[in-house]
Structure formats: structure tokens, C-alpha cells
Amino acid sequence: MGSSSNPAQRVYRLTERTIDKRGVDLRLPEYVPERQTTTPLPAKFSPAEIIALYRDHATHEQFGKTPSQHSSFKTDMDLERLPSGKFDVNYLVCQLAALAMNLLRMIGQNTLNEPDSPVRHSAKRRRIRTVMHEMMFKTARVIKHAGRRILGLGKSDFAVFEHHYGQLKTA
């Protein structure tokens, strides 16, 4: 079980394989353990039904013309592997990543059609990775002038962010 703030239910299944994927008989059986961890489900779900619910849990990433949000969340936010073995830490990391992803998506949508925006081709939306590369990973320099430190951005980069900030301020 997980902590009291994030309770978890685990279901196990052990599969015995006597034939490999090419149809060749194995000399010794191969045992494949499966474990599914989920939030507690109502008692009406048997362990076999819970395993069936999770059987095709990753196939939705393989279909569709645009990458799914789940796929971009994992790859673009670099969360293919969570940093900890503790539920609470991973929960916090996922919450912060979701916040960052929503902010990046907002920046991407609000700066998509601006005249100063870096655009390679016309699009209706930008991938999170594209927003990070074109808008966030910019070269800047710290300028010391008149006893103050100033972050120096390129003029066009600053104009895009200034316009975006103005849109947020009026909303």
C-alpha cells in the first residue's frame, strides 16, 4: 500500500510460457510476472478485470495523426522515467510537470500568430518541445549597467514575450 494521502491497490498475475514468440517449444517454462498498481477500485472489480483494464494502456499513443498529450507529456517533459520509487515524490513531480506543460502550451498558443514569433511553417498549434526550443532556450546575457543587472534578450524575443504578458494581464 502507498501512503495515506495516495492509497494504492496492487494486483498480480503470473503467466507461464511454454512456447516462445516464434512458436518454438521452450525446454523450461518461462514465468512472466505482471503487477498493476492503481488507486483503489470498487469491490465489484475482480483482479482479472483490473488486469484486463490495463492490458492495452499504452496503445493509445500509437494511433492518431498528432502525438497524444500523454506521449508529449512523457517525451517533451522528459518524464519517461519518474525520478523516485516513492508515490508522493512522483505525484509532486507529475503535478509540477503538468503545470509547466500547461504554461508552455499557453505560451505556444498565444504567440503562434504574432508577427515577431519565430515560425518555421504555419500551424494551428505548436508541440511543447517546439515551444521550448523556439521560445525558452534563448541566448541571453547578463548586462551590468548603472549598478543594476539586466537580462539582455534579443529584441524580437522580448517583443513576443511582452505581447504575451500583455494578453495575460488583460485576461
General description of the model:
The protein is an alpha+beta fold and 171 residues long. The protein has a domain of 57 residues. Helices cover 38% and strands 20% of the residues. The protein contains five helices and four strands, in the order E-E-H-H-H-H-E-E-H. The strands form two sheets. Strands 1-2 form a two-stranded antiparallel ribbon. The longest helix is centred in the middle third of the chain and has 24 residues. The mean pLDDT is 77.
Which stretches are poorly predicted, pLDDT < 50 over at least 5 residues? none
Helix and strand pattern: EEHHHHEEH
Integer-rounded radius of gyration: 24 Å
Helix content: 25-40%
SS content category: alpha+beta
| Cα distance spanning the termini | 44 Å
Mean of the pLDDT scores? 77
Strand order of the largest sheet: 1-2
Beta-strand residue percentage: 15-25%
Query: What does the overall shape look like?
Result: elongated
**Tally of contiguous helical segments:** 5
Number of strands: 4
